[in-house]
Design a protein that fits this description.
Layout (H helix, E strand, L loop, with lengths): L6 H26 L5 H34 L2
Length: about 70
């Protein structure tokens, strides 16, 4: 198992992985529809999205967590 001290990193990895996987599918489908080569276009978009999503989630998640804690009583 992964040590607890890596919780933030593991969370950011999986959150960005799932979000970029799903969102790249949706956006690729909206823009292109199910065309020949859809899967390759989708996977290309997914890789590009994940490259950006991982550091963004890693940086933004603690900020969102703090905002949420301030709003929830």
């Amino acid at each position: 198992m992964i040590p607890k001290k890596y919780t933030r990193l593991v969370f950011a990895f999986f959150m960005s992985l799932f979000m970029s996987f799903i969102m790249s599918f949706v956006i690729t489908f909206i823009n292109l529809g199910f065309i020949d080569g859809f899967v390759l276009k989708w996977l290309e978009a997914f890789v590009k999205a994940f490259i950006f999503a991982f550091p963004i989630v890693f940086i933004v998640a603690p900020i969102v967590h703090n905002i949420t804690n301030k709003l929830i009583k």
